[in-house]
Design a protein that fits this description.
The structure holds two protein chains of two kinds. Chain A contains twelve helices and four strands. Chain A folds into two domains: 2-67, no CATH class; 80-101 and 144-298, no CATH class. Chain A has helices spanning 2-10, 15-22, 28-40, 42-67, 74-100, 105-143, 161-165, 169-173, 178-187, 229-244, 250-259, 261-269; strands at 155-156, 198-202, 217-221, 297-298. Chain A is mainly alpha-helical. In chain A, the strands form two sheets. Chain A has a two-stranded parallel ribbon with strand order 1-4. In chain A, strands 2-3 form a two-stranded antiparallel sheet. Chain B is mainly alpha-helical. Chain B has a domain at 1-106: Orthogonal Bundle (Rna Polymerase Sigma Factor, Chain: A). In chain B, helix 1 crosses helix 3, helix 2 crosses helix 3 and helix 7 packs across helix 8 (171-189). The chains are: A mainly alpha, B mainly alpha. Chains A and B meet through helix 2, helix 4 and helix 5 of A and helix 1, helix 2, helix 4, helix 5 and helix 6 of B.
């Protein structure tokens, strides 16, 4: 037995055995024998070094050939995230459809009767409130969701796609300085309402080339139920991702968001309402104003 | 049975028995984590087929959307790394054939690599290093497709059984292919 063991460990290794040993693909017993032989045999060790050296050279060459071609991950990552959100929302709506897909006639009847009852009760309550003061106040809240185009046409700076796509995430949406916020409130004649009730928002976000200029800012009511600042932030991020992924150019994104950001949201998210926003007012037909279709001005 | 190591562990904790959250957000999060981990290796692999970068990016997006649907349907989560490379392989091939129908194959690896080597301040060393890389990549480009696939997948860290699954080969065939290819590379390098 001992002589057989000595005999086996004295046998030179083939290239295949050396590669299997180096790659950790041998069984424990065969790996031990291979390593024992390598420890004893300079010839096999030299061949092993050739193999390892060639592997290292190949990996280096492969990386050098491709790594400089790899675009930064941020754009594709954001795009994938948006696509996954779309897929997930499709799944939610499909699950509701499947819930409604009863096979039993009785089930359908029971479900419909229950639905009618709930609709009657909820509808009665809603009509009662909305006819008194709800609708007016709701419309008033929603009115500020689009800026006054004469005051806020949108202003941009010259940007390249590299400028835009190399911005950190927090720069894409952007914060507004306190002094400029006051100017914006003053311009819009907001003096008697608490400033906390508004978010001074960019019409064209910095991530799309918008600048911190009073002509690019407006006070967006934070009390808006449907089309609020958070929804607009989502649109800004989506447009930024699409620009960086080469899906649309910067000027298109600027024009669409400046012309009517709600219409742009519907266009780019393929939806009539904000995704993920549970609004009680989905069916409300919001009035819009300032529908002028002018392109944003560039900062002098 | 080959031993396992940390590289061979699947990307999920306890991956073989992992149970994902039923919430889409849980699956989305897992997919994004895998994207962060595997996007670059998969993109390099897709590019090695000779397709343009924007096509390769599209391929990778589709790979991860397929992964999302795969996990949503509660399909097997065993060896997801192998699964990702297999889907990327199939989609990249499909894209390559589509491109070949419309126009000629894009620049090969070594031509892409030209002018990109700048590891050394010494111009002679720089030239020599670039030439060696060109020579190696030219040899790889001349290998049969299966041999190229084995080498490139192994360079991205896949184990033999994962390579076998991606390329539809036996474990033995993977081992022989890698040995043969490395022998050619050693000869080309004049070692």
């Amino acid at each position: 037995m001992r002589s057989q063991s000595l005999h086996l460990s004295d046998m030179h290794l083939s290239d295949q055995e050396m590669l299997l040993a180096a790659d950790g693909e041998l069984s424990t017993r065969r790996a031990a024998r291979a390593h024992a032989h390598l420890a004893a045999c300079w010839g096999c060790r030299a061949r092993m070094a050739e193999i390892e050296g060639t592997i290292a050279d190949f990996v280096r060459a492969q990386r050098q050939a491709f790594d400089l071609q790899l675009p930064p991950i941020a754009g594709p990552r954001a795009l994938l995230k948006a696509k996954l959100a779309d897929l997930a929302s499709d799944r939610e709506s499909n699950s509701w459809r499947s819930l409604l897909h009863f096979t039993s006639t009785t089930g359908v009847a029971v479900f419909l009767c229950t639905g009618v009852l709930i609709a009657a009760v909820v509808g009665g309550i809603f009509v009662h409130h909305s006819t008194r003061r709800g609708e007016n106040s709701i419309v008033a809240f929603e009115r500020g969701t689009l800026p006054d185009r004469s005051l806020t046409p949108g202003v941009t700076r010259r940007v390249t796609i590299i400028d835009v796509c190399s911005m950190a995430h927090e720069e894409v949406v952007g914060e507004v300085s306190t002094s400029l916020r006051q100017d914006v409130f003053h311009e819009y004649g907001i003096t008697d309402t608490p400033a906390e009730g508004y978010e001074v928002d960019y019409l064209i976000a910095p991530g799309l080339g918008g600048v911190e200029d009073i002509r690019n800012l407006w006070p967006e009511p934070s009390t808006s139920h449907i089309w609020n600042a958070q929804v607009k932030d989502t649109l800004e991020e989506r447009l930024h991702e699409m620009v960086c992924a080469g899906k649309i150019d910067v000027s298109t994104a600027q024009r669409d968001i400046a012309t009517d950001w709600i219409a742009a949201y519907k266009k780019y998210f393929h939806t009539d309402r904000p995704l993920g926003v549970h609004s009680r007012l989905e069916s409300l037909d919001l009035p819009r104003f300032g529908g002028r279709n002018s392109a944003p001005r560039e900062a002098e | 049975m080959p031993p396992t190591d940390s590289i061979n562990e699947l990307p999920f904790p306890n991956a073989a028995d992992a149970v994902l959250s039923e919430k889409p957000s849980g699956i989305e999060r897992e997919v994004m984590e895998l994207f962060d981990q595997f996007r670059d290796p998969l993109l390099r692999y897709a590019l090695s087929f000779g397709i343009p970068v924007h096509d390769a990016e599209e391929v990778i997006q589709e790979v991860f959307l397929s992964l999302f649907r795969h996990l949503q349907r509660r399909r097997s989560q065993k060896n997801l790394r192998g699964w990702l490379f297999r889907v990327a392989h199939n989609l990249a091939l499909k894209q390559l054939y589509a491109n070949q129908r419309s126009h000629a194959k894009t620049t090969s690896d070594w031509a892409i690599a030209e002018g990109q080597f700048d590891p050394s301040p010494d111009p002679e060393e720089q030239l020599s290093s670039a030439q060696r890389c060109h020579r190696l990549l030219a040899v790889v480009d001349a290998l049969p497709e299966a041999d190229q696939g084995c080498l490139r997948l192994r360079a991205e860290g896949l184990r033999y059984r994962e390579i076998a699954a991606v390329l539809g080969m036996s474990l033995g065939a993977v081992s022989i292919s890698l040995t043969r290819s490395l022998a050619r590379l050693i000869r080309a390098d004049g070692r």
